[in-house]
Amino acid sequence: MAAGDEAAIEELYRSLRSLRFHIVFQIGPCLAEDVYHDVMIALVVAIRSGSLKNPEALPAFAQTIARRKVILVIQDSIQQRKNI
């Protein structure tokens, strides 16, 4: 994946698909696909830059990124409601 192999990226996307269901549970289906895609992009960038040192930590690393993205979406939603 670090070399830009598209098949490896597709496999990563499929292998962590269950993460999407956790995202749906937290923020609903409307935003979940976009957040999941953002998580996958962040993961690929992290892997290519060498931020992920231990490949066995990939699921936990992905969950952490997803958790942070979900928090940002929730915070943004709260801010939008305050501004109405």
The biggest beta sheet is recorded as:
none
Order of helices and strands: HHHH
- Mass-distribution shape: elongated
Residues in helices, as a percent range: over 70%
Strand content: under 5%
* Structural class assignment: mainly alpha
> Spans of 5+ residues with little confidence (pLDDT < 50)?
none
Oligomer: single chain
The CA-CA distance between the termini, in Å, is 44 Å
Q: How many strands in all?
A: 0
Q: What value does the average pLDDT take?
A: 90
Question: Would you give an account of this structure?
Answer:
The structure is a single chain. This protein has 84 residues and is mostly helical. Helices cover 80% and strands 0% of the residues. It has helices spanning 6-15, 17-27, 29-49, 58-82. Helix 2 packs across helix 3, helix 2 (17-27) packs parallel to helix 4 and helix 3 (29-49) packs across helix 4. The longest helix has 25 residues, at 58-82. It is elongated, with a radius of gyration of 14 Å. 11% of the residues are buried.
